[in-house]
Amino acid sequence: MIEVSKTVTVDHNTPAEESGLDAVLGAMNEGKINTLQKTSLEWDNLKTKLGVEGQLEKAGEEGYLDRQDFLARVDGRVFEGEKDKRNAQRAKRGR
Question: How far apart are CA 94 and CA 92, in angstroms?
Answer without folding.
Answer: 5
